[in-house]
Amino acid sequence: MKYTEIMIRYGELSTKGKNRNRFIKQLAQNLRKALQQFPAIKILAKRDRTRLLLNGEDSDLVISKLRKVFGIVNFSPIIRVEKDLEIMKSTAQAIVKEQYKPGVTFKITAKRQDHDFQLDTNGLNQFLGSAILEILPEIKVQMKKPDINLQVEIRMDGVYFSTSTIKGAGGLPVGISGRGMLMLSGGIDSPVAGFLAMKRGMEIEVVHFASPPYTSPKALQKAKDLAQKLTSFGGNIQFIEVPFAKIQEEIKAKVPLPYLMTITRRMMLRITDLLRQKREGLVIINGESIGQVASQTLNSMIAIEDVTTTPIIRPVVAMDKAEIIELAEKIGTFQLSVLPFEDCCTIFAPPSPKTKPNLEKAQAYEALLDIEELIQYALKNISVTKITAAPNQIPQNVEQFVDL
Length: 404
Ligand code: ATP
Ligand code: MG
Description:
This protein is α/β, with parallel strands linked by helices.
């Protein structure tokens, strides 16, 4: 049977009081973007749910896209027919027949919004139940956890049949919470951090520090490919490449080895913050997790964060590496992240960075650099690329993703 529409439900959105309209509008806009390859689809956004009229578009493909749209709690593929008992009977029969295998159980769950309809819910359950038994006499009725639960809703504009409720990605529609600058390396953690920020409704722009000729074009491409993976959760992403070699050379020449990493991070953060200001971002997002490496101890965070008062969101801060990896696998970034192209930090990494850097010392060493000039050089030479969601790419990992 061909589905005629999909019913989308959004639990968290509906509790947002006055902001509800804004949420629903943003979700509708994101749906339009996510489904742009299906021009016939019509989106009807309502207070309590949103309907997607498929108008002949392939429901399997549409479902695979919907699973990645934040702000959806769950959705059901629907077959809508006229309020005519004969049509309802043959539709119910066809749906169950299609899903039937020897030994399966079923039940009918009827609901009625239109109280003028000729049968009440009991009458509907009986009428449609006997219609199924008529064509499949050996099928068993089971009230608790049947294999097939045929839900029938008599609404004002027709009868809605569905047999499944599919879990959505949850979260809030991307864009509703404002814009954040994601510091994206080529590693495992920062793409996951970006995913989680998007899940809470943030629109992201990516800042990536590259150090050619020390880093290869492949490392840059890897970061872009990671950003591309994230587009399937929220649409196009602006990718800002910052040339970092000159700054790293200068730091290496002037700063004592134990503070190399601290000063490098301070420079990255300063530049990211200036880009944020220019591009109207509200916060900075990174992939730091407490204690993972020397730059991610609490003391390091203090010595690095000193350069800005902008909130730094660290979505994976309290996650173990194994948990981050598990999520990276689910969202399809892990395989890319483990490709062995060295990034700017690994190449310039000192043998033993300070795990407890001292803020005053960091400031003093930094004074050896012409910070202003270095930053201006980097900002002048950034390049911005729009990473677009590949419209015909069937999302991978959809099955795993749904269990998030
Ligand atoms: P990741 O897996 O995200 O690279 P990591 O555990 O390797 O994280 P670090 O290399 O110490 O940790 O980096 C910490 C954070 O700093 C990263 O999560 C990322 O947000 C940011 N970062 C590191 N390198 C870069 C880079 N080349 N460009 C942009 N941001 C970076
Ligand atoms: Mg890294």
